[in-house]
């Protein structure tokens, strides 16, 4: 109050940073003809050295062909030289031919940049159940290496190339200090519809010049995913193609990062922040969304219980519609809390919309409707739920449910 | 083919039948002032003898006050003389005062019809978190007994009084033969939004003149609910107020029905049919819906697995939007099948929309888009999923997701 508080963070946000900011990475994108418009639909990130790599994938039973190929590449040696991504076609539910196409996509680009095929990962996003137009993918993959660069524009081309119904590109970059050296962690993501924990139609790519092994990177990526990408939902649907891949060039030149390294926590916090920014950007850009909704649950019996409750509230169509209509209908929030299947004391729940208390110890509190309306009309709405039971807490992110969500999804394919 | 097939059923559908068709029941409804419009908002079913009674309730942690009171009434002696229902206010999350109001609502009506309070059940539906206007409820409860009757019009008044955002009333009636005597089973229900397994904002009331004990009725009601009301979803939300109550007057005069009775199966099938009609009517009248969607899953490893998959498909916002747009986007169906958390062989799935095959053994099948469009524009869409693994099967019902769902829910309270 009147005095500034300086929050100490383990990292610095790098304005204008992108996936090419960490040392060793180039990126680019172009239009090869998979999208009906002239927007970019093929992009790549390439590392000048073999980068330690780790991936986290969709839990859907039907995993698209590129997921199989990327898993194989990372499993082969734990390193990647490149990540090739197309939009406009998911190459999912495409059978043997789809698998052959994903392998060929990898082989063509590997040859074009002169690296072994198993050091290339591939990702696809778009319509399910149609075969890739491979003549266009081949042409684009051969043309793409000449477009790669370290500039912000080159990184922008990549960010654009991975989008489908997204309205805006998503990127983030931070700097952390490890052994006294500056290390960058950057990321790009896409996702707008079919977004749901765990790992719904979203693609995420992280680059860093940190020196870290593939296994340590994988362990950390899983932890971070649990509290970031797995805590967003747009519509409850989980895609066949979700993938988050991290590549670490090691070119920052510090001692190898392990859990025992004194700067491990700083790196972990930087990575978490980058992933949180990318995840929230996906939620805010949810199909048809007009605002970002954040649900904060505290006082639960455990973090897991809090996570389940936060996900149920953020996924409620009724809550999402009410937020769209700027209607302080907290009854729908408590109804969602009550059906999450977690321990809840029905007599001790507090609910706040921003700073506006609507429920205290499970009893309605009179509030100013005009104030609530003004708050709910903002571009970010935070719903606070305190169960007053124990110390479990969680955050989840989503968006409102709007006419445009229906419009976009009623005729996506046609 | 050219020859008529006569399907033998255990029951006969009674056209124009309603909750007053079974012997012993009167019903009625009126406007007491809980709704802002002049539509009916208070209704009752009254039995001339103590009727064996059973109830099934919401699984939400926050159970509304009337649920507590109705549970107590049925637990007291297993019989009910009356069911009093108000719409316009759910009396949920209303604390001690709400509980006192529910008890008073019960007491006032019990006195008005001259029966013990514990032989009256109460139900409420509408907005959460606001206290009942008890002066209006009291006035209505005293006035209501004079309005009760056995006519179709009186039953219609009851059916109207329990509606909220519903566009149409829901009722069904069948006749079955037990010990050579005609027995009627009838029902009325309401529900449109916040509908989801298990037992979301829906109220259902079944009357029958069968002679059956409270415990046997309860066991059967639970079984039937699992394959009817618990298999519908409109929006994935589960309310605090769901309740299905059955009352059996016994006035048909046959031997008491137990599982050992030779006509038990006929009664069970008749009850299942009545509940299925009421459940499907709720799904078709889902908020903003333009059509009924039925998902039939077969070939699953178990009925439970099939149920979980059917519920996931019917609950997918992307599938629901595609059906609204008459878009044969089967990729969204298979994505939903794959995230249901059940055993699925990714290589053996068949999908049909009506008679139109779109996926065979997990491989896309070319189909006539115009034919698919015409089918999807109909008022009922059946999605068939065959996993080709074992004999597990299930049906689930829902509706499309439309602009009107958003419109209705963006400003329900205001």
UniProtKB/TrEMBL annotation, chains A, B:
Family: Belongs to the ArgJ family.
DNA damage in keyword set: no
Gene: argJ
Species, as recorded: Paenibacillus methanolicus
Entry-linked InterPro entries: Arg_biosynth_ArgJ, ArgJ-like_dom_sf, ArgJ_beta_C
Subunit structure as annotated in this protein's UniProt entry: Heterotetramer of two alpha and two beta chains.
Name of the molecule in the record: Arginine biosynthesis bifunctional protein ArgJ
Pfam families in UniProt: ArgJ
Record's keyword terms, sorted: Acyltransferase, Amino-acid biosynthesis, Arginine biosynthesis, Autocatalytic cleavage, Cytoplasm, Multifunctional enzyme, Transferase
Marked site positions, Involved in the stabilization of negative charge on the oxyanion by the formation of the oxyanion hole: 125-126
Active site annotation, chain numbering: 201 (nucleophile)
SUPFAM superfamilies: DmpA/ArgJ-like
Top-level EC class as recorded in UniProt: transferase
Catalytic activity entry: L-glutamate + acetyl-CoA = N-acetyl-L-glutamate + CoA + H(+); N(2)-acetyl-L-ornithine + L-glutamate = N-acetyl-L-glutamate + L-ornithine
GO annotation, biological process: L-arginine biosynthetic process; ornithine biosynthetic process
Main localization of the protein described in the UniProt heading: cytoplasm
Binding-site list for substrate: 164, 190, 201, 287, 409, 414
Species classification: Bacteria, Bacillati, Bacillota, Bacilli, Bacillales
Cellular compartment(s): Cytoplasm
Record-listed E.C. numbers: 2.3.1.35, 2.3.1.1
């Amino acid at each position: 109050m009147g005095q500034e508080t300086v929050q100490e963070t383990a990292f610095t946000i790098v304005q204008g940073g992108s996936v090419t900011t960490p040392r060793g990475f180039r990126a680019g994108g172009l239009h090869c003809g998979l999208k009906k418009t002239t927007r970019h639909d093929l992009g790549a990130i390439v590392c000048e050295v073999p980068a330690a790599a780790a991936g986290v994938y969709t839990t859907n039973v039907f995993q698209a062909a590129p997921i199989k190929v990327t898993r194989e590449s990372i499993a082969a040696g734990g390193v990647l030289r490149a990540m090739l991504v197309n939009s406009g076609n998911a190459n999912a539910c495409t059978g043997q031919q789809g698998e052959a196409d994903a392998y060929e996509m990898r082989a063509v680009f590997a040859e074009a940049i002169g690296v072994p095929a198993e050091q290339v990962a591939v990702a696809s996003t778009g319509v399910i159940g149609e075969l890739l137009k491979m003549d266009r993918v081949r042409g684009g993959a051969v043309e793409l290496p000449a477009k790669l660069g370290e500039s912000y524009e080159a990184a922008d081309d990549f960010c654009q190339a991975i989008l489908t119904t997204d309205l805006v590109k998503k990127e983030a970059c931070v700097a952390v200090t490890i052994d006294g050296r500056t290390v960058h962690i950057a990321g790009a993501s896409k996702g707008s519809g079919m977004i749901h924990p765990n790992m719904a139609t979203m693609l995420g790519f992280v680059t860093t010049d940190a020196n870290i092994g593939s296994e340590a990177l994988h362990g950390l990526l899983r932890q971070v995913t649990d509290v970031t990408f797995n805590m967003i939902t747009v519509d409850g649907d989980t895609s066949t193609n979700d993938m988050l891949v991290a590549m670490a060039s090691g070119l920052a030149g510090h001692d190898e990062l392990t859990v025992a390294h004194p700067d491990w926590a700083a790196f972990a916090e930087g990575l978490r922040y980058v992933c949180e920014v990318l995840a929230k950007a996906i939620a805010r850009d949810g199909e048809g969304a007009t605002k970002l909704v954040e649900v904060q649950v505290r006082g639960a019996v455990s973090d897991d219980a809090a996570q389940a409750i936060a996900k149920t509230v953020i996924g409620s169509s009724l809550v999402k519609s009410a937020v769209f209509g700027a209607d302080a209908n907290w009854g729908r929030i408590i109804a969602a809390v009550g059906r999450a299947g977690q321990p809840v004391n029905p007599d001790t729940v507090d609910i706040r919309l921003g700073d506006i208390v609507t429920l205290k110890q499970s009893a309605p509190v009179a509030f100013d409707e005009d104030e609530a309306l003004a708050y709910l009309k903002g571009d970010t709405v935070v719903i606070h739920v305190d169960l007053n039971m124990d110390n479990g807490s969680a955050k989840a992110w989503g968006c409102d449910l709007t006419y445009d969500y229906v419009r976009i999804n009623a005729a996506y394919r046609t």
